[in-house]
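Dear Dr. V.,

Thank you for agreeing to look over these. As mentioned in my earlier message, I'm a first-year student in the group and I'm still getting used to reading structure tokens, so any feedback on how I've presented them would be very welcome. I ran two proteins. I've put each sequence directly above its structure. The first is here:
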Amino acid sequence: MMNSRTAAGLNADVANRLIQMEKATVAAFKAKDEPEFVRHFSAQYIGVAGDGIKTAADEVRGMLALDLSEIKVEDAKATFPTPDMAIVTYTMVVDGHRQRVAIHLVIHTSTVYAKRDGAWKAVLHTESVAQ
């Protein structure tokens, strides 16, 4: 039988794995490594940001349009509304260029993961540029 300490320990392990997956996805975005970038996306993935509602293919097009010198993931946390759902939140600091125009953005981010057939997959990713 699982007690609250065991459940908390399992959640901490899963939280750490999901945060590492998210960091790997961000690193792949910076490196423009499409297979690694979309590796943890579900077939029903949706992205939501200031430039619209996007499919995985739209996210890849956006990745290819940017030339980023740095992306930092800060203050990452994972919460579990249900045993098969996790929400990873963090702040991303982005430096680089879009169409030769320098950009520096601070973005508040969330990714919702669903556990399906034993694997965690991103189903929703949101970004909100800090004011």
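The second protein is here, in the same arrangement:
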Amino acid sequence: MITENIFRSFSEINPKEIAPGFFSKFIHTETNTFNFIEVKAGCTVPLHQHLHEQLSFVLEGKFELTVNGEAKILEPGLFAVIPANAVHGGFSVTDCKLIDVFSPVREDYKNL
């Protein structure tokens, strides 16, 4: 049984700016990508789509998420399950802390 790299420090993950004002820390497993994001108020991620199913959680703040033309303001306690290939994007109403979970793994994010 291999036990190396089971326990890690979140502080050792360097943040990457994936869009203006969106600062991400990624954790990749064999089947998922976890994206811990800090977003500055007023920043936008444009409408886009990808083959990954995505779950989006707001830990702090308010984030307006649009999925397939329907907009909803997410705040702590609310989350979204975004189907694969759904058109979605969003806007940070306030400074936010978010978690996005993708399945399968975001190979494109591994290269950032």
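From my reading of the second output: The longest strand covers residues 53-60. The chain has one domain: 22-110. Does that match how you would interpret it?

Kind regards,
E.
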